[in-house]
Write the structure tokens for this entry.
Amino acid sequence: MVMSGSKLQLTNEGSVDIKKLETIAVIGGNFNLTTGKISDYQVCRTRFLMCDTIKAGGSFEIDLSQHMVKILFEKPATDSIRVYCLVLRYRRSADMKPFTRFVPFTANKDGKTQTIDIYMPLFPSDGSSEASSVEGFGSLEIARQELITLYKTKVIPEDM
């Protein structure tokens, strides 16, 4: 996965086609940098087919802005950032075994104008400055883990 702005590029680096790439959940919430916890979260379960096949060596681009949860609460407090996780599932064409991918990221308004969304991955991505943008990598790793915990407690029981 490589993220640039709101664009996420998924590349099939395997030797087998990927089938049935779908969104199975979108999670959004406010991550408090002081407490290291997500509050005011929203979990949207879905089954949205995004791409039927990604050939071996091929890629597919997703505009994350089209899949963000419209969080229904006020602007996050000054010690919080808005975090999201797009949860994707795909199948390996050889045996149709399912795999899950988490796409955790932040999306916040520009500090000066409050008009432009600034996207930042919460995973290593080429050309990204995620490790230095929000009080060091430790905070981002905690935010990522919190999003995965929400997935495991709020999505998996209903997904199976």
About this structure: The chain has one domain: 2-159. The beta strands are 2-4, 7-11, 18-32, 37-54, 59-63, 80-92, 98-109, 117-121.
